[in-house]
Amino acid sequence: MATNSFLLSLLAGILLLLSSINVARADLEITDVFTVQTGGDSTGGCDARLNPLLDDWLTESLFSLTAAIDAVDAYDRRFEVRYAMLAFFSFEIQDTIGTQQENPTRYRTWNKIRQNMAEVKNLLEHDTVLPGGGDFKFPKERFWLHCHSTFLTEQSSTSPALDYEGKEIKKDDKTITIQELDAYQKAIDKEPNVKPWWSGTNTDQNGYYFSEDGRNYCQGDHLGVTASIKLLQAEGGQAVTKPEIASVILCPYAFDNTRNPDNYRDANAKLKKDVRLEDVLPKSTTLVHEAFHAVHGDKFLAGSDEKCA
């Protein structure tokens, strides 16, 4: 479906702003934000994508999130923002946001939209200075980045279940299988072709991914996927006290496809009447999209072909 002229003009304005920014080497690097898988494509490594590509993607992502937050803040002053928030978030058009006292439900909805963006920006800018002090909310040890799904090894639902240290999970001294674990039963029963994949062979991230169609994730034109990895302990398969790991996989197609422009300058040059929105979004938007999953959960913004447990 082609984008309508209004949304296209709004997007054009944003792209024009971002295309004027010199996306050069920034002080912040992708390895500051994520635990990045090393190595080549055969083990999901990002060595060939790191410098400058992923660092440039990070810079573009931060600029786009900043522009989006600034636009949301200008709701009362800019009619195009009001129409955009209706189109993208079903946020009813009114002349003003209003106040928390006048319309608490509307204000909370607006604030939630803004906060969702701000939290993703907080992850990507790796801002360790929090208001009022406290621990950093998004330590990179909890956020992994891979550049292919080839680091995963295929398993059977009847394979022995392994814990977060790679040890067999036992109950009453008896090894139990993946499908016998309550923590994984829902994922296995969800689709008839679902298959578990183990991440501990090529990484230190010992956990399971569950592919709904049974295949490795990076197939065809898949751009990426994000999974929440639950850490289970050996005795009984109970969850450990450590927080879940958000694991982001960027597929080769996200980097190598010829449909999406390489950057915001190229995206701006592609804008024209009846262009499809997905055809003018620069490649770095895949990183932004998966970052939303990483922060807000793997079902947030999820489509039918990228859900995992």
Please explain how this structure is put together.
This is Lysine-specific metallo-endopeptidase domain-containing protein. It comes from Colletotrichum siamense (Anthracnose fungus). Keywords: Signal. Residues 1-26 form the signal peptide. This protein is an alpha/beta fold. It folds into two domains: 5-26 and 53-125, no CATH class; 140-272 and 279-296, no CATH class. It is 37% helix and 10% strand. The protein is built from ten helices and nine strands. It has helices at residues 5-19, 30-33, 50-73, 79-89, 104-125, 182-190, 252-256, 264-270, 277-280, 285-296, and strands at 35-36, 143-146, 153-154, 170-171, 174-175, 195-198, 208-211, 224-229, 245-250. The strands form three sheets. It has a four-stranded mixed beta sheet. The chain has a three-stranded antiparallel beta sheet with strand order 3-6-7, with no helix packed on it. It has a two-stranded antiparallel ribbon with strand order 4-5. Strand 4 and strand 5 (174-175) form a beta hairpin. The radius of gyration is 21 Å and the shape is globular. Residues 1-10 and 300-309 have low confidence and may be disordered.
